[in-house]
Amino acid sequence: xxxxxxxxxxxxxxxxxxxxxxxxxxxxxxxxxxxxxxxxxxxxxxxxxxxxxxxxxxxxxxxxxxxxxxxxxxxxxxxxxxxxxxxxxxxxxxxxxxxxxxxxxxxxxxxxxxxxxxxxxxxxxxxxxxxxxxxxxxxxxxxxxxxxxxxxxxxxxxxxxxxxxxxxxxxxxxxxxxxxxxxxxxxxxxxxxxxxxxxxxxxxxxxxxxxxxxxxxxxxxxxxxxxx
Length: 228
Prior knowledge:
Order of helices and strands: EHEHHEEHEEHEEHEEEHE
Radius of gyration: 17 Å
Number of helices: 7
CATH class: Alpha Beta
Number of strands: 12
Low-confidence stretches: none
Distance between the termini: 44 Å
């Protein structure tokens, strides 16, 4: 079994195409890492496709795995994330919406929601993934989506609800990475330092590449940045 590698799980033509962008960026910074690419049937219902993410530990052939959503772009070396997962069992970021109680039929209180689009993990985290698989099929993860104080639609399923519930149920303590390891530009408009992983279907503006190059200079100064 390889020691360390990267896993993608994709379905649908668009996700398969955009994943090539992610894989190119990964090779630029980690040409040594093997990649396991799991492509699900394009006709798979999106809800069932998301549910398959809960199987990522079983789908990974690696001792140390980085799972990446198809719409990610890697901006630098990711050794720190692997090292923290090796020590703690898992390393991830808190979701841009940190309140898992938005799935109000399944969770309540201050349970934390994590983003499952960038997950570093090892076999130490097996209890979380076993619970995630079980809970993904039993919890009502529907979520009302509101803008300007009005409910516009109801999202029928979200894989992050089951993951949050699994972390809470098992009491597992993942290492929490800084937000620039899973930067969500449509929600996050400020940042200190460079983006490490961009998580968005739109391409990163050239400015972010310039910023990343600036921070490769050992004399660079961490700065506060705002984006439109």
